[in-house]
Amino acid sequence: MSSQSISTDNSAPNSDSAGAPDLGKNAGDAVLSGHKIAKRVTGPEGTLTILHELDIEIHAGEAVAIVGASGSGISTLLGILAGLDTPSEGQVNLLNQPISTLDEDARARLRAGRVGFVFQSFQLLPGLTALENVMLPLELVGEADAANRARAMLEQVGLEHRAGHQPLQLSGGEQQRVALARAFVSQPALLFADEPTGNLDSATGDKVIELMFSLRKKQGSAVVLVTHDNTLAERCDRILRMGNGRLEAV
Ligand SMILES: Nc1ncnc2c1ncn2[C@@H]1O[C@H](COP(=O)(O)OP(=O)(O)OP(=O)(O)O)[C@@H](O)[C@H]1O
Ligand SMILES: [Mg+2]
Question: Lower Cβ count inside 10 Å, N or C end of the chain?
Answer without folding.
Answer: N
